[in-house]
DNA sequence: AACTCATTCAACCGCTACAAT
DNA sequence: GATTGTAGCGGTTGAATGAGT
């Protein structure tokens, strides 16, 4: 049978989008909220296929997207959601407003997978590595998981994938192990750092004993301490004991994240998920080719620097000496410990000129200046609630702040 | 400076689901 | 029920970039 391709591909651009193309697409989408993606390139004057336009919009141009690296909290959420849904990236993304499936998928494949493996956790099963259950038990475990999930079909798919990969891993380990490798594994088993030592050899639950449990059901994991010399290391303490459907650290339930639904009666509409901030033009009833598309100025990337960065990116910086004990003790989460000293200085510098926190919020101080490696940038405070929360700014004594040494000399004194 | 190798992530491709005809 | 069209999903690719030598 075969299907007609989504476009003829003749004379169409491929590869990276230019700023000009982005501008055209955004202008068009924001003003033509009812249009099939197939028609978008034609009407927007783009030499792209509709599919490519949709992808560009959904993954990159959508105005509600958060940009930048995921926060630790988001990472934890991804891990936990992945343990529930497997590689159902869109499902995971639907629990993370402002994040795309593509972004999460990339993050998983490039960062989280490695982190988990490094910690001795199988990123596929979320169980300790080398602790694969015997076939029967294995099957039983998945069956019990399945019963808890609403969508049996998807779950089965996921499990099948898991089983395939697990058996592959087992095969590989059987075939490729050399004496050296075995010796190394034994060495690893003997260390106190990994999980391996913690895994009991007999994993079978005692069916005659109600109190017995399988390690696969309740993994007995002794967490190891994070390696402070290694930015990428994190402790099991930090991972996925998250109840995803309960209130999160950010103060909202993932159930409570209400996005407006797309109009189910009109398939060709853009979903409001995809076009969330549009004031629709009442005169537009259908897709049209308009010369009167209002020109919407996009923020141009600075082509000379590539350094369009976000506060999230500063979080990987190891904290230097804390400036003030009372500030540091008010920090409530790990995020705070990742905020470096120069960030703190900038915050204090900003605060010193104010009478109150409300001044900062409501006055002309919505911009916060952050310095990193000699580069100073500013960003809108409204996106940074986590930072404010971590500094517990409501409790800050402004008189004390004003009496602090000059931030520059303070910074110099820290070296 | 030049080269190699590793990593990242935007974009592509092929497929499925689903609705419309 | 068969066919077609579209949106969306997940795996993969490859250019850009960074790190190491």
Automatic annotation (TrEMBL):
Chain positions covered by the region annotation Disordered: 133-165
Domain Myb-like: 9-61, 62-112
GO BP of this protein: regulation of primary metabolic process; response to other organism
SMART domains: SANT
UniProt cross-references to CDD domains, sorted A to Z: SANT
Cellular component GO terms held in the UniProt record: nucleus
Signal as UniProt keyword: no
GO molecular function, one term: transcription cis-regulatory region binding
Keywords carried by this UniProt record: DNA-binding, Nucleus, Repeat, Transcription, Transcription regulation
Domain of life from the UniProt record: Eukaryota
Location relative to the cell: Nucleus
Domain HTH myb-type intervals: 9-61, 62-116
Main location: nucleus
Keyword Metal-binding recorded: no
InterPro entries: Homeodomain-like_sf, Myb_dom, Myb_TF_plants, SANT/Myb
Name listed for the protein in its UniProt record: Uncharacterized protein
């Amino acid at each position: 049978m075969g299907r007609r391709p989504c476009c003829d591909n003749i004379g169409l651009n491929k590869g990276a989008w230019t700023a000009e193309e982005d501008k055209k697409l955004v202008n068009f989408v924001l003003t033509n909220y009812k249009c099939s993606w197939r028609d978008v390139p034609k009407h927007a004057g783009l030499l792209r296929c509709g599919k490519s336009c949709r992808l560009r919009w959904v993954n990159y141009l959508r105005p509600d997207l958060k940009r930048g690296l995921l926060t630790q909290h988001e990472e934890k959420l991804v891990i936990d959601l992945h343990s529930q849904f497997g590689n159902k990236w869109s499902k995971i993304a639907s629990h993370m407003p402002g994040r795309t499936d593509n972004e999460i998928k990339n993050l998983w494949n490039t960062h989280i997978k490695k982190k988990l493996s490094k910690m001795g956790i199988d990123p596929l099963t979320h169980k300790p590595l080398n602790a694969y259950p015997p076939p029967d038990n294995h099957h039983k475990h998945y069956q019990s998981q399945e019963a808890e999930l609403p969508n049996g079909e998807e779950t089965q798919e996921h499990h099948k994938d898991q089983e395939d990969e697990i058996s592959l891993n087992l095969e590989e380990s059987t075939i490729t192990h050399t004496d050296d490798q075995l010796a190394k594994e034994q060495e690893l088993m003997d260390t106190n750092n990994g999980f391996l030592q913690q895994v009991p050899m007999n994993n079978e639950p005692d069916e005659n004993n109600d109190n017995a449990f399988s390690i696969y059901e309740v993994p007995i994991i002794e967490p190891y301490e994070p390696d402070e010399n290694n930015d990428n290391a994190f402790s099991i303490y930090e991972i996925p004991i998250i109840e995803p459907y309960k209130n999160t650290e950010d103060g909202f339930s993932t159930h409570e994240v209400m996005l407006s639904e797309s109009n189910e009666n009109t398939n060709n509409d853009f979903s409001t998920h995809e076009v969330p901030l549009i004031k629709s033009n009442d005169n537009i009833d259908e897709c049209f080719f308009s010369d009167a598309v209002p020109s919407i100025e996009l923020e141009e990337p600075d082509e000379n620097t590539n350094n369009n960065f976000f506060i999230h990116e500063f979080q990987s910086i190891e904290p230097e000496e804390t400036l003030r004990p009372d500030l540091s003790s008010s920090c409530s989460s790990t995020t705070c410990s990742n905020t470096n000293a120069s960030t703190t200085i900038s915050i204090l510098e900003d605060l010193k000129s104010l009478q109150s926190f409300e001044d900062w919020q409501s006055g002309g101080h919505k911009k916060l200046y952050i310095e990193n490696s000699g580069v100073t940038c500013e960003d809108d405070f409204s996106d940074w609630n986590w930072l404010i929360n971590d500094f517990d700014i409501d409790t800050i004594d402004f008189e004390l702040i004003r009496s602090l040494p000059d931030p520059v000399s303070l910074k110099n004194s820290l070296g």
